[in-house]
Amino acid sequence: MPKIFGTNLLGILVATVAFYLLGYVWYSMLFTEMWLAFNGISEADAIAQAESMGAMMYIGGIVITLLQVLGLAYILNHASASVLLTCVKICALIAVLIALPMMMYAHIYEGASHRAVGLNFGHTLVGYILVGAILSFFRGKDAIGD
Length: 146
What we know:
Elements: E1 3-4, E2 7-8, H1 9-30, H2 32-39, H3 43-53, H4 55-78, H5 84-110, H6 114-136
Antiparallel strand pairs: 1-2
Helix pairs in contact: 1-4, 1-6, 2-6, 4-6, 5-6
């Protein structure tokens, strides 16, 4: 199986699907009411927006997720990380030091609720930890050289 950034392609795909499904569970099952309230939209508005986007909502979501997984795999490769705990720590740090500050722009400059940012960050943090764990199982001890 080919490797991308020292990670087996299957691992990239598994991590992408897992992170995407986490988003589905996070926003559609666990925190739906909170997400709607924090963003000041009704369920009808959310449904209308989803319907207007059609398949692009899902295609865009999977592409965004894949790009994040590829970015994390790239960083893990440059860190020579392949051990579970190391991969998880690095991915969690990336969430805190890069993803969270990026999300804060929406709060500071676009008026997004700090609660919405917190809910989104929770998803990102859990997702990055999940991705780090999954990718660790698909990286060899000599992943940098591949």
